[in-house]
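Thread: Modeling a multi-component assembly for a lab meeting

Hi all, long-time lurker, first post. My supervisor asked me to bring a structural picture of a complex we are working on to next week's group meeting, and I have zero experience with this. I have the sequence lines for every component (463 residues in total). Could someone generate the structure of the whole assembly? Inputs are pasted exactly as I received them:
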Amino acid sequence: MLSEFRLPALGADMEEGTVVQWHVAPGDAVKRGQVVAVVETDKGAIDVEVFEDGVVRELVVQAGTKVPVGAVLARLETAGQSAPPSLPPEPSGTAQEAAGSRARISPAARVRARELGVEVASLIGTGPAGSITIADVEKAQQSTQPSRQPSVDRAGERDMAPAGGMRAAIATAMSRSKREIPHYYLSLTKDVTGAVDWLAARNASVPVTERMLFAALLIKAVALTCRDVQGFSGFYRDGRYEQSPSVHVGVAVALRGGGLVAPAIMDTAVKPLPSLMEEFRQLVMRARAGRLRASELAAPSIIVTSLGDAAVDAVFPIIQMPQVAIVGAGAVSSRPWVVDGKVEPRQLIVLSLGADHRVTDGRLGAQFLAGIAERLAAPEKL
Amino acid sequence: MKREDLATTVLALVTGIAPDVDPASVIASVDFRDQFDFDSMDTLNFAIALHRELGVEVPEADYSRLASVDKCVAYLAEKVR
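Re: Modeling a multi-component assembly
Sure thing. I ran the full set together rather than chain by chain. Output:
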């Protein structure tokens, strides 16, 4: 049968995208999960995968074309009647394989290239896994005189440019979340001295490449607790809640040009901590280099947002639709705390939860938050 | 290694792990955190890059000594011959 390959929505805040590159041509066989196109969005350039096996019949949208979410990008000849699965396919292959020889570029570098009139396709990247950096763009502009001078109005909006489109997209999505989701918020202060000490001792005994961040413990603790307490890892669609069969924790990553993305660590609950940490590290790097995959952006069943580096006590997080919960964490800091009737300096963290009253109440939310805190108290079991 | 060479290497490593940082804009005396929101993940990646490039294993307790280009150069000058 002939099947239509459409531009997927990568979160509630995406309305359109520009196909910048096709990796396949008519006649090519494709496998479920294979990256077939690069689409530039407000979240950066995203690798978009196909959802079924088949053979490419026709590329409907040419590279360079901007299209709305849901637009037919290509037509595939497929074997069965298989409807697109509700969950995106597991990303196949590693980041290195996905990189190939094509131009990957951070959102900030792409903006600079546009300002300077530098053709991105002609650049050789020197960043992580060959991604194009701002320095690469500027070097290219210096070596070859620009074919186009940067326009005056572009130069004027330089400071706001990197975040402009993404800022508008975030504002739209968050307004909708606040309007449609009856949020409730809970917070819990937890003594995590044990976990902090455990992590420091562990990090001191392993090579630098195997060190872990506290955030990795938190992500795993959240994922495991999602399995213990139902109602927080899933999707609210068409008036009903559906628990996600696997927990895919999305991690809020702040981008330096402004804005943020929340790609998922797939099947978070079953990953051993060291591999979860390595994936987390790669994910953050790829998010900032503009190298994310569509499935990673569409997958999160819950999000963790850690503002530990910003040195705030607590976060009051807003749920990203169609999810129903988001866990926040402030900085771990040394504070006075009562232990066995005495005040002692301890390492404290404020965990918070933004959750959806259409699905759960504060009592269950409290149980969920307490579950995360309990898991953090036993880091060796994570 | 000379101090100028160390500074060049540090700058290359920083922009290598953070491709969204404009190398021309980096001020050697200002902390990375204040200049471009370096976070704990960036610091870890930087420590890994230093290990790969210079063979220096920076303990977590010394992370604060990697906070800017100038601080890095002073620290690395002790560690790299």
